[in-house]
Amino acid sequence: MKRTIITIGRQFGSGGRVIGRRLADELGIAYYDKELLAEAARESGLSGEFFEKADEKPSTGGLAYAFSAGLPNMGFYAPYPDILSNEHLFLFQSNAIRSIADRGGSCLLVGRCADYVLRDDPGLLSLFIHNNSENRIRNIIERQQVTKEEAMELMKKTDRSRASYYKYYTDKEWGMSSSYHFSIDASFLGIDGTVGLIREMIDRRRSLP
Amino acid sequence: MNTQKSPLVLGTEPVGKLLKQYALPAIVAMTASSLYNIVDSIFIGHGVGMLAIAGITLTFPLMNLAAAFGSLVGVGASTVISVKLGQKDYRNANRVLGNVLVLNIILGISFSVLCFPFLDPVLYFFGASEHTLPYARDFMHIILAGNAITHMYLGLNAIIRSGGNPRTAMYITLLSVLINCALAPVFIFGFHWGIRGAAWATVIAQAVSLALQIVYLMNPEQVISLRKSIFRLKSELVKDILSIGLSPFLMNICSCLVVILITRGLKQWDGDIAVSAYGILNRILFLFIMVVMGLNQGMQPIAGYNYGARRFGRVVAVTRATIFWAVGVTTFGAFICQLAPRFIVGWFTPDAELIEVCVYGIRIVFSVFPLVGFQMVATNFFLSTGKPKTAIFLSLARQLIFLVPCLMVLPTFLHTTGVWLSLPIADTISAVLTSVMFMQAINSFKKKTFYS
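YS: structure for the whole thing
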C-alpha cells in the first residue's frame, strides 16, 4: 500500500473532525487532532497548555518585543526569539508534524496548517470540509452545550480566527478551493457518504500508475 | 543563538552558564552602540564645544522618533521572516526582504520630507535657543538627508540576523561603529567640519555598512538574497509586519516624549548649559542601562523556556542571577558617579562650568541607580513569563506614569533641581511598586514549585 498523508481543514461545526476520525479508524491509520499538541509539547519540552492556548490562533503580535531598544543611529531588536510566542509555538508544532510524517506510515492530521507544512510530501491528500450553516449550528449547540445565538457567535469568531491563522502562516486563503486538493460540502453526502467518497478518492489515487 | 534547534538544553544546563552564553553577545551589541554615542559626544564636546553638546541633545527626540520608525518595520520583519524560514518558504522569506527594503525607503524619505520644513519650530519646542539651534539644525540636516540609508541599514541588519546569520549582522554593526569612530575625529579635528563632521561620519559609516549588506545579500547562494520580483509591496505582508511592530514603536514614542519634557524644563530654568549637562548625563546613564538590557535579553529565552516547561525553580534561579548582575552593574555605576563624577564628565567637556552643572545633576540622578537594575530585571521577569502587559505597565511606570507628573510639578518649585529629582523619584516609586508585584509573583511561583 502506498503511503498517504491526509490533512483535513474544516469549518467549525462542519463535521470535519468526525469524518477524519472515522476515516482514520476505517483505514486503520494514525489520527492526529489535539494529539498534535501533545506531540509538540513532548518534542519541545514545553508544557502542553501553551500549545492549547495558542492552538490555531493568529500572531500574538509584537507585545513581547516592546522593549527592543531602538537606539538612535544603531537600533537593534531583541536578538532572541520569544519562545512562548504563537509564532515560535507554531514552529515547534510544525516540527512535530514533520516528524510524524517522517515516521513513514500513513496518517491523518486535522487542522494546524498541516497541509501547508507537508506541502512537498508526495503522499499528501489535502481536504477541506465545510457544511451549511444550519448543520453547523446544530452541531455546535450539541457539542458545546450553548444557545443558538452563542453558537452563531462562536461559529463566526472561530471562522475568523482560523482564517487569519491560516493566512498568516501559509500565505493561502483558508477554505478557498484552490488551497486544497478537494473541498467538500459534508451536507451533500452526509458524514458516512463523505467518508466513503474520500476512501474512494484514496483508492483511485493509489491505483494510479 | 538558535533556540529552536535544541530547546531542551535551556531546560537542563546550569542557568548561570546559560545566562553567560546568552547575555554576553547581547551585552556586547548593546554597549557597542552605546559606546559609539559616547565617543561621538566626546569628540563633539572637545572639538566643537559646549553649545554643540546641547545641540546634539536637542536632536535626541527626533533621533528616537526615527529609531521608533525603524523598530516599526524591523521587529515585524524579524518575526515574519523567521516564521517563513522555519517553514522553508523561501519565496515569501525573500519577499519580506524586498518589502522591508521598500518600506524602509518610503518611511525613511517621508520622515525626512515631513521633518525638513518644521525643523526649526520643532527644535525650538524641544528647548533650543538661538545659540544652540544652528548646531542642532546643521546636524539634523545631514542626518535627515541620509535617513533613508539609516532605515535601510537597520532593516537589512534585522533581516540578516533573523535570517540565520546573527554573527554577520553583529560584525556589520561593529563595523559601522568602528568606521564612525575613525571618521568623526578626522572630520571634526582634521577638516574642522564642526558638528556636521559628526553627522557625516554617522551617515557615511551607515552607507558603507549598507553597501556591504547589499553585496552580501546579492549572493544568490544565500538562502535570502536580493532578486527581482520581491520588491512589489504585498498588502498582507506589510500588514503583518507593521502590526507586530506597533507596540515596540509606541514604546519608543513614549521615551521620546519624556526626553522632550526634560530638555524643555532644563532650558526653561537653566538655559543651554543644563541641556548640555543632560546630554552628557544621558550618555553615561545609557551605557549602564544598555548593559542591563543585554542581561535582560539573555535572560529572556532561559526564563521563557523554563516557564513554558513548568520548571519554576529554574525561572526563579535565572531571575535571581540576572538581578544579581544587573544590580551589580547599576551599583557600580552609582558608585563611580558619586565618587568620581568630575573624572567622568571631564571626558566629555573641558568647560569647568558645564562640568559643575553636570556633576550636580549626576549626583541626584544616580542616587538610587541600584534600584533601576532591580526594577528592569523584575519587569523583564513578567515579560518572560507570559505577562507582557504587566511588564509594559511597569516599564511605563518608571519611564512615563510616575515621571511625567513629577516633571510637570517639581520644577515649578525646585527649578532645575526639580527636573533632576524627578528621575530618582520616579525610579524609587516604580521600584517599590515593582517589588511588591514581583514578590507576589515569586511567592506564587515558589508554591507551584512546591506542589509540582
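YS: worth flagging: The interface with chain B takes residues 44-47, 50, 59, 61-85, 87-88, 90-92, 94, 116-117, 167-169, 171 of chain A (CB under 8 Å).
IM: good catch. Also Helices of chain A lie at 16-27, 35-44, 48-54, 86-102, 114-117, 133-144, 148-170, 186-207.
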